[in-house]
Amino acid sequence: MPTRGLLLRIRECGHSSSPAMRRLAEDIGRDPHAASVCSIRDLAAASHTSASTVVRFCRKLGCDGYKEFQRELVYELASTDDTNDITFEDIVPGDVAEHVLRKVMQSSIRSMEATSRLIDPVALERCVQAIMRCRVVNLYGVGASLLVARDLEQKLTRVDKECHMREDWHGQLLSVRNIHPDDLAIVFSYSGLTHEMVTLARKARERGAKVVAVTRAMGGQLADEADLVLGVASSEPLVRSGAMGSRLSQLLVVDALFALYVTRDYERCTKMMLRNFDEKKPEGVTSA
User: Are the beta carbons of 122 and 129 closer than 8 angstroms?
Assistant: First the structure.
């Protein structure tokens, strides 16, 4: 199966790798078409690395080796011509409301499109199966990621899947210290570097629970602590004024996760949603 969002993964890998791999990612990103046809030795020489570094780089991207990497690169270049980068127009002082609205909309659309290419369908399916089998789903996040975790809690509660979520860091820490081996921890962090979230993921694994990370595709520390990673596109700088594209990308993951969960347990879930549906009646109208 093709490696989804390979060019985006290359860019992500460049952000969180050794200097040698960073140079390699930059060289490929500048001219992916050349990289798709050159030999491993030529690519290594051009980026001042070694053939073994190129192989390690390919494996970090999820490919078995250089030949598979080239096949997937050729496939992606042939199937789309806009995955090389996610370009967002910056909002500048003096922008009129119409321009701000257009730029925010375009940024959000591109972020979600990129994330849809990055999500691994196999990992998504495995995550849904883990939700179905686990005793309790434990949700963790801070800041804007906490809002996303709360959205998933609301969705799963509607279909009568037990969830635990705490608003504050100390409550989350207490929760993870008492997590069961047959529980599931889903940790949200756009950067993948938030110390509290990395700590929670590590402690959940130490307790024997399965960990799912919703984070940047090559999310660094958090991804390293997770059993499954649902990657979102790197659509914003790590130091930013507010989470916009990143929040929407995480919400896209949540919606896909919930929709797939419902399809895998359709009769029970639809029954629960109908039971929990509150029909709004006009004032003064009473039931027969």
Answer: no
